[in-house]
Amino acid sequence: MTHFTVLHWLALLIIVVLFILVIILTLRNSDETFPLPTILTIAFVALLMFFLAIFALDKYTKVAQLENVVQKKILINESFSISGQIRNVGNFEIGQCTLEVKLFNESLEKNGDTPLFRPKSVFDDFFTKDSSSSFRVDTSKDFVIAENLQKGEMRNFAVFIRYPASYAKPYARYELFCH
């Protein structure tokens, strides 16, 4: 669940006031014989506006950044270690920050005659008979690296993710999500 800021409560108040105003205007309309579909439609639109407002406000009020990130490949147990610091650079408290780590089996560099970018279609899996030539396994895992991060606060974090032994050239990418 997201932490509501003053802006979240203000958006909720505005949407509720508009919802009540439109309901009153709909009920006062003498041409309306059966107002229930109209009221349900208005309720759906108000709910949709509220959820979009929450996501938009979370994106611009809950801002954190990663600093001093060190990524190491640990060969003895075939895993990646990602460590560093997370800092709340926004003006509001952050409820939870999640680091999504994705592991890939191929490197970004050009390998021999294979191109760097090869377009892939959804239907390739249905029509190719030999899938061993393009063996690619991608894994993803989410780690909660901070909870209740106050304005300006910095915390250390470290995450470990194992990669399968079948990976020839593993590499990791990560992305931060806060709400």
State the major sheet: 3 strands, antiparallel
The H/E string reads HHEEEHEEE
Give the percentage of residues in beta strands: 25-35%
Gap between N and C termini: 8 Å
Annotated CATH architecture of the largest domain: Sandwich
Number of strand segments: 6
Strand order of the largest sheet: 1-2-5
Assign the CATH class of the largest domain: Mainly Beta
Q: What shape does the CA trace take?
A: elongated
The count of domains is: 2
Query: Nearest-angstrom radius of gyration?
Result: 24 Å
Mean pLDDT over the residues: 82
* Structural class by helix and strand composition: alpha+beta
Uncertain segments of ≥5 residues (pLDDT<50)?
Answer: none
Number of alpha- plus pi-helical segments: 3
* CATH overall fold name of the largest domain: Immunoglobulin-like
